[in-house]
Amino acid sequence: MKKVRTQNTGSGRKNSVKSAMLPVYLCSQKPIHSLSTSLLQAFMIHSIDQLDLAGKRVLVRVDFNVPQDDTGAITDDIRIRESLPTIQKIVSSGGRAILMSHLGRPKGKVNAKYSLKPAAERLAELLGKPVKMAPDCIGDEVGKMVALMEDGDVVLLENVRFYAQEEENEDDFSRKLAALGDVYVNDAFGSAHRAHASTHGVTKYITKRAAGYLMQKELKYLGDAVAQPVRPFTAILGGSKISGKIDVITNLLDKCDTILVGGGMIFTFFKAMGKEIGDSLVEEDKIELAKEIIANAKAKNINFMLPTDAIVADAFSNDAARKTVSIDGIEKGWRGLDIGAESIAAFSKAITTSKTVVWNGPMGVFEMSNFAAGTKAVADALAEATKHGAVTIVGGGDSAAAIEQFGLVKAVSHVSTGGGASLEFLEGKELPGVAALDS
Ligand code: AMP
């Protein structure tokens, strides 16, 4: 394994797994900045458990942005299922749940293709009780529907993105949404990186607000992993490009003991080292940046590991001729599409001997079976580390899709529901939807 620097700076730093798992920032007494200075800052976020829900109209931002097939049938309902604990809590506490979400990109126009009706039907099945579908998300008819609700009822508002004002975070629209609730709960981590009316603007008009259980779970895992990791702390970064992950790499260089790099982005690093990379993916304009990252990792004594071998192919196709070569042996006409067996062994060892692991981005073109081995091995190593007590977190997006493809979702500590949001969280950015819950 190519170690730009081999030193575990974190050994000896002690944290108990237990304390790292406690969501202490989600209580009224303790500001979350006591756990994380760079990410969560001086927010005081309440849990839904601290709200008086009985008889109240509880306006909940959920993330029902679910994938559908051509007929409109939901192909993956994980986001709906993940929101159940929060909705069930409201129902069992005698609250009236008024749910709002976006679906797809209707660009401010009513479009039946993006109606949340299928989500209402699926939610009703999962809850085992009726869910009334509102014809709109604001307006007289919706107002009347909400006024007629009884304790324990559930209403799903129509797609908030049927209004351009949602993404504009427009004040009047925010006020109209807010008028539907006495209290506000945000359970949509996947949308928390956007300052929209339903995630941000509404909080100006509802003083009693809290994080739902899914939001809490995401903040607990991603927040604690970065703010107070049990060490050794290893991050695995992959995917196609350095440019998409540069802020994550920079932020994690200050926090991790080991960073493992795979995916298409490795070839920009290898080019920066003067190696022949054949026809592999490269970002010519990021070569200098790659050099800086390597130098920074060295200066910070981070164990920055790049693969030592790769599976190369003579075309970008699952049926292409392929072979395993050393990183120094990539020939012209060949491109790297996965990490090789030697790298898999070294990466697996680093992962299974860690106590906190964060993974974002595949090791190769995992969508093609002949180039999925590296990504599968990382997923297996995460599962193994979890068995030995490590906290293992998979960022959303492609890594979440990969771990699902390998049937290992339940074998890791947490799979984030938010691709963009989890990435921004790992970049150390403030999420507007989280910041707005501050009270
Ligand atoms: P990203 O969206 O940047 O996280 O990249 C994810 C994509 O990177 C996946 O669709 C993978 O197929 C792709 N990928 C991973 N490794 C490689 C590689 N060696 N060459 C080209 N694409 C890759």
Condensed summary:
This protein is α/β, with parallel strands linked by helices and 439 residues long.
Spell out the key features of this protein.
15 helices; Rossmann fold; 7-stranded mixed beta sheet; alpha/beta; binds adenosine monophosphate; disordered N terminus; 439 residues
Task: Describe the 3D structure.
With 439 residues, this protein is an alpha/beta fold. The chain folds into two domains: 25-218, 3-Layer(aba) Sandwich (Rossmann fold), CATH 3.40.50.1260; 228-426, Rossmann fold (3-Layer(aba) Sandwich). The chain is 32% helix and 14% strand. It has 15 helices and 16 strands. It has helices at residues 17-21, 78-92, 117-127, 140-147, 164-168, 171-178, 213-227, 246-253, 266-272, 287-299, 341-352, 373-387, 398-405, 419-426, 432-435; strands at residues 2-3, 57-61, 96-100, 132-133, 154-156, 183-186, 209-211, 233-237, 258-261, 303-306, 309-313, 322-326, 335-339, 356-360, 391-394, 414-415. It has a seven-stranded mixed beta sheet with strand order 1-10-9-8-14-15-16, with helices on both faces. A six-stranded parallel beta sheet has the order 4-5-3-2-6-7. A three-stranded antiparallel beta sheet has the order 12-11-13. It is elongated. The chain starts with a strand and ends with a helix. The model is unreliable at 1-42 (pLDDT under 50). Adenosine monophosphate (AMP) is lined by residues 239-241, 244, 263-264, 281, 336-337, 361-362, 364-365, 367, 398.
